[in-house]
């Protein structure tokens, strides 16, 4: 790390103390942002940490739905998103109006929404889930049918795991994971014979079916620690390679070609974290009625799995 990056990190950590803050970073964040964070985790871990934190200020180094989730679960805290434009294209693929119409056409069918959705959509949802607990969440409902959105790939993967439940899926997807083809994964297998493939459930069904394990980002970090493979093919956003190298430095992690990069996750730089803490900028608030309506679905999510 350069001298100037080190100085910036020292500055950020001093601001964290001064503001009684905590920095929660997603596993896809740039290495320098992960390095300055108090905790790095997947969406479920970040939501739980935000709810349990005793800090006065939460800096969410990630994308908007994560900061909104923190603001809903921790209404007394100040939540800062260092780059306000950092969003998730998938979360924009279903609006509250669209969900309301879908529900109206399917009266009585419970709604399970991926946490990658807006606060307004969560307010119309029975229970949210993340990639780490989607199967358990759907199973926990004990029903024969659910409406699942916005990710059709995660929904289909859940449907394959929970055969007793009919999962009707919304037609949204992650542009980063949905563009990975089976051919690309098979090519990586050919180039690295014997190496297992781990994939995120936002990948297309044929890619998930090909993978040796389908896991959330933090589940991947735990999986490689116990795996005896010395090379692992990683089918998720490239930022996870930072954490993988940290938890299993003796192993080789191979991303795909071309690399999978979420432009929104990469918007946040160390300077943005410093500026947000210094000026207390990028505050994310959720209107009270929306937050109150969305909280129950998020609290159910954090209690499962
Ligand atoms: P995880 O919850 O697995 O970290 O995934 C979040 C995400 O946005 C994946 O694209
Ligand atoms: Fe959204 Fe995909 Fe980026 Fe995750 S990787 S934040 S799902 S666009």
Give structural notes.
The chain is α/β, with parallel strands linked by helices. It folds into 3 domains: 3-87 and 265-285, NadA-like (Rossmann fold); 91-174 and 290-302, Rossmann fold, CATH 3.40.50; 176-254, Rossmann fold. The protein has helices at 3-18, 31-36, 43-52, 64-73, 96-104, 119-122, 134-140, 152-161, 182-191, 205-210, 217-226, 240-247, 270-279, 288-302; strands at 21-26, 39-41, 57-61, 78-80, 111-114, 127-129, 145-149, 166-169, 197-199, 213-214, 231-235, 252-254. The strands form 3 sheets. A 4-stranded parallel beta sheet has the order 2-1-3-4, with helices on both faces. Helix 1 (3-18) packs parallel to helix 13 and helix 3 (43-52) packs parallel to helix 4 (64-73). The mean pLDDT is 97. The structure holds 1,3-dihydroxyacetonephosphate and iron/sulfur cluster (SF4). Residues 27, 42-43, 116, 130-132, 174, 200, 202, 216-217 line the site of 1,3-dihydroxyacetonephosphate (13P).
């Amino acid at each position: 790390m350069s001298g100037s990056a080190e100085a910036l990190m020292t500055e950020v950590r001093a601001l964290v103390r001064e503001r009684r803050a905590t920095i929660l970073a997603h596993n896809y964040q740039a290495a320098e942002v992960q390095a300055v964070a108090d905790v790095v985790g997947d969406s479920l871990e970040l939501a739980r940490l935000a709810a349990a934190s005793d800090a006065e200020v939460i800096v969410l180094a990630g994308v908007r739905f994560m900061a909104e989730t923190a603001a809903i679960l921790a209404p007394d805290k100040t939540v800062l998103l260092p780059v306000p434009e950092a969003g998730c294209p998938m979360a924009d693929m279903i609006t509250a109006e669209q969900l309301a119409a879908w529900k109206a056409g399917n009266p009585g069918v419970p709604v399970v929404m991926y946490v990658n959705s807006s606060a307004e959509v969560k307010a119309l949802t029975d229970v949210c889930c993340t990639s780490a607990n989607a199967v358990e969440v759907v199973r926990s409902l004990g029903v024969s049918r659910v409406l699942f959105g916005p990710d059709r790939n995660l929904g289909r993967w859940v449907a394959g795991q929970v055969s007793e439940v009919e999962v009707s899926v919304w037609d949204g997807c992650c542009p980063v994971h949905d563009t990975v083809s089976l051919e690309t994964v098979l090519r990586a297998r050919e180039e690295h014979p014997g190496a297992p493939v781990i994939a995120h459930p936002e990948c297309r069904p044929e890619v998930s079916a090909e993978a040796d394990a389908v896991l959330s980002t933090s589940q991947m970090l735990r999986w490689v620690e116990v795996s005896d493979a010395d090379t692992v093919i990683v089918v998720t956003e490239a930022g996870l390679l930072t954490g993988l190298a940290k938890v299993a430095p003796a192993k080789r992690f191979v991303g795909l070609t071309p690399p999978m990069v979420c432009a929104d996750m990469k918007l946040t730089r160390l300077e943005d974290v410093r500026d947000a803490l210094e000026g207390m900028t990028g505050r994310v608030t959720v209107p009270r009625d929306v937050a109150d309506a969305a909280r129950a679905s998020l609290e159910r999510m954090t209690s499962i799995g």
